[in-house]
């Protein structure tokens, strides 16, 4: 199939309507039911379209993460909304089209057909992110996902869907790409900018996390040290260009 779509939805009626429409248009569909699952699938595979139920909590994070992809790889985003959903918020998050619930087969079919001209074909060998994984920053009770841009033994450079709040240290966790090894600990925010990019030095990592990280980087032939240095009590600072760790 030339096109594929990631559908995030829990309502059986909506799932059935979308499955029928994508089958008619020969769009390969992957179904998930939660934000973490959708984010995980997005970093593993490129999708032509995202169909997201904005009545689910924190759906806007999925749309915002999708907008971080290079322009040539960005999916078309459909926002499924109910009567009480604020339509402006869906477009602010990056939605391109709106599907009103309860979904009606003919209307969904027309919307998907109209949007197909903007969809990118499912190129299995297309260029991917340098590191296909997400890092989660624990900000109070909220876990903010961000794309890993660069990784060394000393820290991580990331792209978040929104600017980081003014914190100096933050708990973080991520799975090393291609493994099941979870890296978790504390990080010191040494730089950040208004686009959501940031550099974080590991301030506390368990011995097992450091062991897995060292082995992973050695296998990839990655640099063992970062070019960013931080002194005790380093302050958050703004930068106009990305800084490699």
Description:
With 245 residues, this protein is of the alpha/beta class. The chain has helices spanning 12-24, 35-44, 59-66, 87-93, 105-115, 207-220; strands spanning 3-8, 27-32, 49-53, 76-81, 97-100, 134-139, 142-151, 155-159, 169-175, 182-192, 197-204. The chain is 26% helix and 30% strand. Mean pLDDT is 85; it is low at 125-129 and 224-245. The longest helix is centred in the C-terminal third of the chain and has 14 residues, at 207-220. Strands 6-7-8-11-10-9 form a 6-stranded antiparallel barrel. The protein has a 5-stranded parallel beta sheet with strand order 2-1-3-4-5, sandwiched between helices. The protein is built from 6 helices and 11 strands. The radius of gyration is 19 Å and the shape is elongated.
Compact overview of the structure:
The chain is α/β, with parallel strands linked by helices and 245 residues long.
CATH-level-4 superfamily name of the largest domain: Response regulator
Which ranges are low-confidence, i.e. pLDDT below 50, for 5 or more consecutive residues? 125-129, 224-245
CATH class of the largest domain: Alpha Beta
Q: Reading side by side through the largest sheet, how are the strands ordered?
A: 6-7-8-11-10-9
Give average pLDDT, whole number: 85
Q: Roughly what fraction of the amino acids lie in strands?
A: 25-35%
Helices, by number, come to 6
User: In percent, how helical is the residue content?
Assistant: 25-40%
Q: List the domain count as a whole number.
A: 2
Distance between the termini: 39 Å
Characterize the overall form: elongated
CATH topology-level name of the largest domain: Rossmann fold
Category from helices, strands and their pairing: alpha/beta
Over all CA atoms, what is the radius of gyration?
Answer: 19 Å
The profile of the biggest β sheet is:
6 strands, antiparallel, barrel
């Amino acid at each position: 199939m030339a096109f594929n779509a990631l559908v995030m939805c829990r309502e059986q009626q909506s799932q059935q309507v979308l499955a029928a429409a994508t089958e008619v248009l020969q769009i390969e569909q992957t179904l998930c039911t939660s934000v973490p699952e959708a984010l995980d699938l997005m970093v593993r595979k490129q999708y032509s379209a995202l169909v997201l139920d904005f009545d689910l909590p924190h759906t806007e994070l999925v749309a915002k993460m999708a907008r971080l992809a290079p322009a040539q790889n960005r999916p078309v985003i459909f926002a499924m909304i109910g009567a009480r959903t604020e339509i402006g918020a869906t477009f602010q998050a990056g939605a391109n089209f709106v599907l009103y619930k309860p979904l009606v087969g003919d209307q969904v079919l027309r919307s998907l057909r109209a949007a197909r001209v903007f969809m990118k074909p499912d190129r299995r060998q297309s260029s991917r992110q340098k590191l296909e994984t997400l890092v989660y920053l624990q900000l109070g009770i909220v876990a903010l996902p961000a794309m890993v841009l660069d990784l060394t033994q000393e820290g991580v450079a990331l792209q978040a869907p929104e600017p980081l709040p003014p914190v100096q240290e933050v708990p973080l966790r991520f799975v090393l790409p291609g493994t099941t090894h979870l890296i978790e600990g504390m990080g010191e925010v040494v730089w950040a900018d208004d686009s959501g990019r940031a550099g974080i030095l590991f301030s506390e990592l368990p011995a097992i996390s450091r062991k897995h990280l060292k082995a992973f980087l050695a296998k990839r032939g990655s640099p063992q040290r970062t070019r960013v240095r931080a002194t005790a009590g380093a302050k958050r600072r703004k930068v106009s260009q990305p800084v490699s760790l």
